[in-house]
Amino acid sequence: MKLLNVMIYILVYFSTMLVIIAAADWRLMIPVLIWLVLYILIQIKYVPQLKNVASSQADARSDMTGRIVDSYTNINTVKLFSHSQRESDYAQQGMDGFLKTVYLQMRLRTTGYGWFSKNRVFTNAFGGGFKHQCGLYKSPFGV
């Protein structure tokens, strides 16, 4: 139900925005529609990838935490029967597995954020240009 409310809000927001922009000049709608299509395509590409990486990262975090908790819980047994490096290596393997997923997620996020920052530049440039054309933008420098 919450997703439906969000989708209705977005639909009403964009419809109203397009009507207001079209009232000024229909050609101003073209960059907004191009932006909308590109934004949707970027979302379709990156959201499923982030979902999969986040799921594998949660599994790796759980495994790593379990390994560390096992080591601390069984510390007396570890001190009595373990070799000096065995438990450290066991915890280190869990941490390495977790860090692989962290690196993958950060790589994916920085790639995606590169696209989103370009999106922000476009939005600001278009918004600023629209405000300037309509006389809504008042420069503090008098230009």
Describe this structure in words.
There is one protein chain. With 143 residues, this protein is an all-alpha fold. It has one domain. The protein contains four helices and no strands. The chain has helices at 2-24, 29-73, 75-81, 86-133. Helix 2 packs antiparallel against helix 4. The longest helix is centred in the C-terminal third of the chain and has 48 residues, at 86-133. The protein is elongated. The model has no long low-confidence stretch (mean pLDDT 78).
Radius of gyration, in Å, reads: 26 Å
Distance from first to last alpha carbon: 48 Å
Q: Which percent bin holds the helix content?
A: over 70%
Major beta-sheet overview:
none
Decide which structural class fits the backbone.
mainly alpha
Q: What share of the residues does DSSP label as strand, in percent?
A: under 5%
Note poorly predicted spans: none
Q: Quick one: how many beta strands?
A: 0
Mean pLDDT: 78
Number of domains: 1
What coarse outline follows from CA principal-axis ratios? Answer: elongated
Number of helices: 4
In N-to-C order, the SSE pattern is HHHH
Summarize the structure.
The protein is an all-alpha fold and 143 residues long.
